[in-house]
Write a structure and sequence with these properties.
Layout: E1 2-8, E2 17-23, E3 30-39, H1 42-49, E4 58-59, E5 63-71, E6 83-86, H2 96-99, H3 109-113, E7 120-122, E8 127-130, E9 140-144, E10 148-150, H4 157-160, H5 166-178, E11 185-189, H6 193-204, E12 209-214, H7 217-226, E13 230-233, H8 239-247, E14 251-256, H9 261-269, E15 271-279, H10 294-297, E16 302-305, H11 313-325, E17 335-340, H12 344-351, E18 358-362
Parallel strand pairs: 4-8, 11-12, 11-14, 12-13, 14-15, 15-16, 17-18
Antiparallel strand pairs: 1-2, 2-7, 3-5, 3-9, 3-18, 5-6, 6-10, 7-8
The protein binds nicotinamide-adenine-dinucleotide and zinc ion (ZN) (2 copies).
């Protein structure tokens, strides 16, 4: 067991407390990672504000990169010193969903994540929860070997962390979730970290039009740099009418990357007949959708969801890393600011200002 520094959420709606915690030794299949960088994802904010319930105290943070420090006795593919990013949907590899290639829907996830002892404890021995069994706002974390991907040397860790959540989620939703076809038209509602990755995925997929929709003009300006061909400020009126005015008809694919019933319903309304709406944003617990039934049979629309890129995260992250190396996936541009660990709470405040795509926290600074 070691003692390290972590940012702990003790009560919903309060700032994270930077404090010492204890981290258990790695179990046979686990790796202890010295965390260098963590991107601030809106999902962390959901736990902090209570829109997604969690046990307390908890260490949030999951968009993670760092360096392997110690490995459990059964670990074969990683060694101390390896630079890594997270593949945050570990899986058993053997259940019916894993065998079918849907590892994000592993039916044995609880078993896979089960530990003999709590991974994190307070210095006086009380257990601390970890968001998604990760808890990245800690200078040391424990992850299963199959929840990590080695990063090539020319990918800096402060951009490599994005691969583990917003990139695999957004680009994966395009390729694996909705399976966007070349030449088709795409709309993206919400142009934060995840939405910007969806826009880039649509560009890489060869979409002939990519319409970015947000409430903030700075985010829309950035969206153009990531590949949007059209932009709509959703606060200026009806985005459905405006999209039809700009394109002449609805889109083949509409992605929702905000997390609300209203924007999910808008995604369906943006489609032309036979189009697919893909929900990626995480709506508050208990949210229900009201959608017109006629859309599904007379217009053959489809409504789907995509979680963490709907696929084989380790393989996909390695591929997306190569797209970055080839200059085809923009990661540096997405990191608006790197802030020191002590400013993590201010980082969450900055997230809601328009001129940021991703804030990354440097845990060693
Ligand atoms: N499905 C998954 O696996 C997965 C993974 C990561 C994040 N998420 C979820 O995706 C969502 C987006 O995450 P993020 O980190 O990109 O958030 P973010 O805060 O960086 O971006 C959200 C964007 O939505 C915009 N927005 C807010 N209300 C809007 C509206 N009514 N119309 C248009 N735009 C609006 C904001 O201006 C902002 O640009 C969150 O709900 C998050 O929890 C899902
Ligand atoms: Zn995330
Ligand atoms: Zn499985």
């Amino acid at each position: 067991m070691i003692t390290t520094r972590a940012a702990v959420l003790n009560e919903i709606g309060t700032p994270l407390e930077l404090t010492d915690i204890r981290v258990d030794d790695p179990e046979p299949h686990e790796v202890r990672v010295s965390v260098t960088h963590v991107g601030l994802c809106h999902s962390d904010l959901h736990y902090r504000t209570g829109t997604v319930p969690t046990a307390l105290p908890v260490v949030v943070g999951h968009e993670v990169a760092g360096v392997v420090e110690a490995v459990g006795s059964a670990v074969t593919s990683l060694s101390p010193g390896d630079r890594v990013t997270g593949a945050l949907t570990p899986s058993c590899g053997r259940c019916v969903n894993c065998e079918a290639g849907h590892s994000t829907q592993c039916t044995r996830l609880d078993e896979v994540r089960l530990r003999q002892r709590p991974a994190f404890e307070t210095v006086d021995g009380r257990p601390i929860e970890r968001l998604a069994a990760i808890g990245a706002f800690s200078q040391h974390i424990l992850l299963r070997e199959n929840a990590l991907v080695r990063l090539p040397d020319d990918i800096p860790l402060h951009v490599g962390c994005l691969l583990s959540c917003c990139i695999v989620t957004g680009v994966g939703a395009v390729f694996r979730g909705a399976q966007v076809r070349p030449g088709s038209t795409v709309a993206v509602i919400g142009c934060g970290g995840v939405g910007s990755a969806i826009i880039q995925g649509a560009r890489l997929a060869g979409a002939s039009a990519v319409v970015a929709i947000d409430l903030d003009d700075d985010r829309l300006k950035a969206a153009r740099a990531y590949g949007a061909t059209h932009v709509i400020n959703g606060g200026d009126g009806d985005p459905v009418a405006e999209l039809r005015r700009q394109l002449g008809e609805g889109v083949d694919y509409a992605f929702e990357a905000v997390g609300s019933a209203r924007t999910a319903e808008t995604a369906l309304a943006l489609l032309r007949p036979t189009g697919t709406a893909c929900l990626v944003g995480i709506a508050p617990m208990g949210t229900e959708l009201t959608v017109p039934a006629l859309d599904f049979f007379f217009e053959e629309k489809r409504l789907i969801g995509s979680y963490m890129g709907s696929g084989q995260a380790r393989e996909d992250i390695a591929q997306f890393a190569r797209l970055y190396q080839q200059g085809r996936l923009m990661l540096d541009e997405m990191v608006t600011r790197v802030i020191p660990f002590a400013e993590v709470n201010e980082g969450f405040e900055l997230m809601s200002s328009g001129d940021v795509t991703r804030i990354v926290v440097d845990l060693q600074a």
